[in-house]
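User: Before I run my own analysis I want an independent prediction to cross-check against. Here's the chain; please return only the structure tokens and, at the end, one sentence I can use as a sanity check.
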Amino acid sequence: MTEPEVIEIRTEFIRLDALLKFAAAVESGGEAKLLIQDGQVKVNGEICTLRGKKLYNGDTVSLGGNEYLVRGGAE
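Assistant: Structure tokens:
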């Protein structure tokens, strides 16, 4: 398995749909919404259907064979 792509954040958390757009895993918020609702996105290894799910430092997101690791956050 390849190393996850690290997504640096400067806020306390990032919402799941926003992370997918920021990481360029999707082209639009609408596409993110559909993929999440369809159960195609995993957060920390479990399917997540909540597009507003808050992700914090250390959380991982998987979509279509790609993995993203959240790093950083407000202290």
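Sanity check: The first strand starts at residue 5 and ends at 9.
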